[in-house]
Specification:
Strand order of the largest sheet: 1-2-3-4-6-5
InterPro entries: Anti-sigma-factor_SerPK, HATPase_C_sf, HATPase_dom
Pfam families: HATPase_c_2
Strand content: 15-25%
Protein name: Histidine kinase/HSP90-like ATPase domain-containing protein
Oligomer: single chain
Shape: globular
GO molecular function, one term: protein serine/threonine kinase activity
Largest sheet: 6 strands, antiparallel
Helix content: 25-40%
Number of helices: 4
Radius of gyration: 16 Å
Organism: Amycolatopsis mediterranei (strain S699) (Nocardia mediterranei)
């Protein structure tokens, strides 16, 4: 687990921020540059049914990345979000922060207690172990209003974002 962290910003209301491209921009490379430097954020309700909407949102935001990488990102986001919904408190925000060499995933909730790995059982306890196995780095940031769990996935095509 990585202990250092920088705060990206306060949660918003489900919007994207970043430099917009000129109206004539339209090549795949230009679209890729815009995607990789845009802050994508989604606010969600405390219902577990929101997980399906979050997975769909991640697939939409990461359209154009290799399928295996997108699958890994969906799994990591799903684990961090389900952990927040089960053990945290509203409000909840999910962020995707694509960069040149990594994708940073952040999930905010308002529970002050830090997330902890549990021993796997029939009731769960595998989520953070899966995140640890798939992410290049992960951790949590405690804030006065709650916490942010985060994970970073390497975006280079070798090994295409697969979990080891």
């Amino acid at each position: 687990m990585t202990t250092s962290d920088t705060r990206v910003g306060e949660p918003g209301s489900g919007h994207e921020e970043g430099e917009s491209l000129p109206a004539e921009a339209g090549t795949a490379k230009e679209a890729d540059v815009k995607l990789r430097f845009t802050r994508h954020e989604l606010g969600i309700s405390p219902e577990l049914s929101e997980l399906a909407r979050v997975r769909h949102w991640v697939r939409t935001v990461l359209r154009g990345f290799p399928a295996q990488f997108v699958g890994t990102a969906v799994m990591v986001v799903d684990e961090l979000t389900s952990n927040a919904l089960r053990h945290g408190r509203a409000p909840y925000y999910v962020r995707l922060l694509p960069g040149v060499a990594k994708l940073r995933i952040e999930v905010d909730d308002s529970e002050g207690e830090p997330a902890r790995r549990r021993a796997p059982s029939d009731q769960g306890g595998r989520g953070l172990l899966l995140v640890e196995r798939c992410a290049a780095a992960w951790g949590q940031l405690r804030r006065p209003s709650g916490k942010t769990l985060w994970a970073e996935l390497a975006t280079d095509p070798d090994p295409a974002g697969a979990c080891s």
